[in-house]
Amino acid sequence: MPDLESNYNELISRYKEVAVIGSVNGLLQWDMQTIMPPKGSERRSDQLALLAGIAHNRMTSPRIDELLTALEAHSGELPPEEQANIREIRRDQKKAVKVPQDLVEELSRHESVCHEVWVKARAKADFDMFAPYLEKMIALVRRQAECLGYKDTPLDALIDLFEPDATVAVFTKLFDEIKSVSVPLVRKIADAPIKSDRAFLHRDYPIELQRRFGEQVMKSIGFDLDGGRLDVSVHPFCSGGLGDVRITARYNPNAPQQAIFGIIHESGHALYEQGVRADTFGTPLSEALSYGIHESQSRMWENLIARSRAFWTFFLPRLKELFPTQLADASLDKFLLAINHVQPSLIRVEADELTYDLHIIVRFEIERDLFAGKLSVSDLPRAWNRKIEDYLGVVPPDNGREGVLQDVHWSGGMFGYFPSYSLGNIAASQFWSAMKRAMPDLDKQIATGKFSDALTWLRANVHQHGRRWSRDELLQKATGKPLGTADYLQYLTDKYSDLYRL
Q1: 494 φ, ψ to 5°?
Q2: Tens-digit pLDDT profile for residues 53-82
Q3: What is the CA 302 to chain-centroid distance, rounded?
Q4: Which of 208, 201, 245 shows the shortest CA–CA distance to 223?
Q5: CA dihedral (144, 147, 153, 159) positive or negative
Q6: Which spans in 287-441 are helix H?
Q7: Active site residue 266
Q8: What are phi and psi of 240, to 5 degrees?
């Protein structure tokens, strides 16, 4: 037993070193997307590549394998949480040893350069400027997928990095189920007599006041501002871990809802990171189970909670205190219909809740065809525009912020990530249904500005378990069933049938 204990402690110590390196990498990434001077990208790419190489070298050390092998031989003698850490570290180690260090460093180096070019190309709506950098990124992640291995398509290996054990086939089935309900519902709403008046959302809303309201909401729902901060970036994101969680937003002076819901979305991510157990920090038990489960937290706070009548019963009077003239004619009913307005649009992060998944399906199908060899980089703008028109009935005016260059993900090599958003929607609805069963007065609590019980439930059932269980095991324990679309599709049907009196 002494050898077992010392081996386990050494393994955790070594893993925590890798986690610390990862946290430094994350801080540099945050800096790159917020305040780094444009000319700093070349040096930043070298810094990030060096850190990625050091972390990879530590993770693939023969000593890690020796410790894991020794511990696995006696894992039954260890407590369940320690067994889970060993299982998940082995999973990480197996993936790491398959990918050569020079590829890890090259991917990291190119990500920094690619991001800076994407920012410029997006602003100029110039896809041709970005194309050669994207081609190189795709070639690099293809090599990564080949190293990792897959059964049907390279995209399966990339999806698995974000959503363990998920595949193109799994998401194709889920998306077919979603489309079967959401597409007819969108059509019914288009023909419904109820129409929202959104004119008041296009008035002038000073950005500093938007930020002030965003911070007020963040604090109210449980964000610890002593352990995090809010900044500005081209594309909103959340970065960091317990003690230092940073989120960003982007502001539109004539569309305050964009920043409000963006801040709430990223706060949902941050609450997950701030909710891990301090005693497991730096181990797999303090890391998100999957990106889909992480997205379930952001999508829940953004949509199921923050687009509800209860939420704005409490917050609309406070928003009116900051914008009394702009919102003078906005009743609660009028405001609710406006922020839940369903209309096919061009930009994913500004899409309504019902058509959002269609944006994800567009990206998923493009990535699926790209890695199946059916599309080349030069085909992407045309393929993008065609699919956006097919699914949403709108056509981007250019290849910039409203078209194929709108998302940051491809510049960072995050192919296979987009489906996690929809998986997050599905899981969020299951968690929400379970929360409401456990707390029948939850809406009344929210309407009075009390969010502590909801956050406590999420901390106990989601945040504090990290990677202890699989996705379906966590959902089974928290909600009584594995992942499935039933709760999500019922939620969408009930909500929009009520709003539009279908």
Answers
A1: -65, -45
A2: 999 999 999 999 999 999 999 989 999 999
A3: 12
A4: 245
A5: negative
A6: 291-299, 309-322, 332-339, 356-371, 380-392, 419-438
A7: yes
A8: 105, -175
Q: What is the CATH number of the domain that holds 486?
A: 1.10.1370.30
Catalytic choice (88, 105, 116, 266): 266
Residues 475 and 379 in one domain: yes
Residue 41's pLDDT is what?
A: 85
Q: What digits encode the pLDDT tens for the residues 335-366?
A: 999 999 999 999 998 899 999 999 999 999 99
Closest CA to 367 of 172, 99, 107: 172
Q: Would you report the helix, strand and coil content of the chain in percent, each value rounded to 5?
A: 70, 5, 25
Provide the domain limits for residue 130. Answer: 2-149
Q: What angle do CA 87, 273, 12 make, to 5 degrees?
A: 35
What is the value of pTM for the model shown? Answer: 0.94
Phi and psi based region of residue 391 (left: phi greater than 0; alpha: psi -120 to 50; beta: remaining): alpha
Structure tokens at 452: 């502590």
Phi, psi (5° rounding) for residue 283? -115, 170
Same domain, 175 and 42: no
pLDDT tens, 365-389? 999 999 999 999 999 999 999 999 9
Number of domains in the chain: 2
Are 40 and 135 found together in one domain?
yes
- Residues found in the chain: 502
Q: Give residue-wise pLDDT tens across range 391-449.
A: 999 999 998 889 999 999 999 999 999 999 999 999 999 999 999 999 999 999 999 99
Amino acid type, 280: T
pLDDT at residue 203 is higher than 80: yes
